[in-house]
Amino acid sequence: MEERSFLTGAATAAHQVEGNNTHCDFWVMEHLKHSEYVEPSGDAVDHYNRYSEDIRLLAEAGLNAYRFSIEWARIEPEFGKYDEKEIEHYRNVISTCKENGVKPIVTLHHFSSPAWLISKGGWTDPFVISEFAKYAGYVTEKLGDALEYICTINEANMGFQLHKVMADIKNSSKKEGDVQVGVELDMKKILLSMIEQGFAFRRNPLKVSTFLRPRSKEQERIVLQAHKAAKKAIKDHNPNIKVGLTMSLFDYQPTPEGKKNAETLWNEDFGMYLPYIQDDDFLGVQNYSRKVVDEKGAREPASCARLTQMGYEDYPSSIGNVVKKVSKSFKGELIVTENGLSTSDDERRCEFIREAYQSVLSARAEGVNVIGYMYWSLLDNFEWQAGYSKTFGLIAVDRMTQKRYPKQSLTVLGDLAQK
Hints:
Layout: E1 7-11, H1 14-17, H2 25-30, H3 47-60, E2 65-69, H4 72-75, H5 84-99, E3 103-109, H6 115-119, H7 127-143, E4 149-153, H8 158-167, H9 187-201, H10 217-237, E5 242-248, E6 251-254, H11 259-269, H12 274-277, E7 282-286, E8 290-294, E9 297-298, H13 318-327, E10 333-338, H14 346-365, E11 370-376, E12 395-398, E13 403-406, H15 408-418
Parallel strand pairs: 1-2, 1-11, 2-3, 3-4, 4-5, 5-7, 6-8, 7-10, 10-11
Antiparallel strand pairs: 8-9, 12-13
Helix pairs in contact: 7-10, 13-14, 14-15
C-alpha cells in the first residue's frame, strides 16, 4: 500500500482538552451541587493555549493526521452571536496542522453543546436541526477552504445506546463498560442532578436534552436530520469537502445460539442509522472492545479477561473486525476516528496499538476502503463524567504544571505510520 496515503494520527475532543469551556452545557452540569461528574473539567490540559506544542509532538513522532473538534459553545456562545476571535483560533489550529505536515480532520460536535441550545430544547427538539445547520454553514464559510474532511456529529448513535443501558439500570449487571463513554450509572445521583439541571437550564428536568442523554429511536431521527441538514450546509459552501459522522460500534461475536441476538444488537447500533448515512462521503468508525453474544444477549467479559480502566474487555483486534463488518453495507470511505486503551500500563498500550493497527491494515489488504486510523487519545484528558482518572493518552500531562510527557506508545504509533 501507499504508506503515507494512509492517515495515521490521534484524536481529541475540545471540551476534554481545551479547558475553560464556560459557555457549554457540560460546564454548567459539572458545577452543580449534585453533579454527575466526579470533578469539573477546569483548565483541562490547556490544549487551547498549547495546541502548537501538542501538534508538533504528534508530527515529530511521525503521525500525519489529527482529528479534533471545534467547540460550538465557543463559536456561538450566545444564541445567534458568533465570535470571530474563536473562528480565528481554530483557523490557527488548522494552519498549525498543515505547517507540520498533518491533515486536519475536524468534528463540529463532540458531545458538548452551547448552554443556550439546551435551554431552548436541546437534542430531542427539532429546533436543533436548523441551528446546527446554521453553525455548520458558518464554520464552513469561514474555514472550509482549509478543510478536506468534516465529521458533523461524534457518535450519533450514542443516545440509543444510553437508552438501552438506562432502561436496564436496575439490573445490577449493568456496568460502565456497557457503553463506550465515561458516564454515571448511579440512579440516585442521576435523579438529583436532573432536578438541578432543570433549574440551571430553565427546563422541565425530564426534558433537559443534552447530547449524552438517553434517546428513543424516534428522537435519534432528530440527530440524524441535524446531520443531514449540516451536511447540506457544508456542501452548499464547499462541495469538495468530504462529510460524514462517527458511530460508536462494538464487535459483536455470537456463539452459535447467539446469532439472532447479535444481529439485533448490530442493527440497533448501526443498521437503523444506515438509511441516513449511506450517501455520506465517509464514516468514522469508533470501537474499543468486543462483546460475546449468546442466547440471552451480550455477556459480561469472562472472569479471566483482561479489562481496561473503563471496564471494557481489552481486545485490540475488535477494530479490524468492525471495519470489515461496516464495509459490507457502507460503501464510502472508512476512517477509524477513535480506538484506544485506557490503562496506566503504557507497555500494554504499545502492544494494544500494534495489534489494533495491524488488524486495520489487514482489513485494508482484504479490500476494505479504510483510509486512516486515529488513536484515542493524543493526550490524557477529561473522560466526561469519569473525570481525569481514565488515561487513554499517548502523551501524559502534569495538570499542575501542564507539562507534556510523551509516552513510548506515541513513538510506537509513529513508527508504525512510517512502515
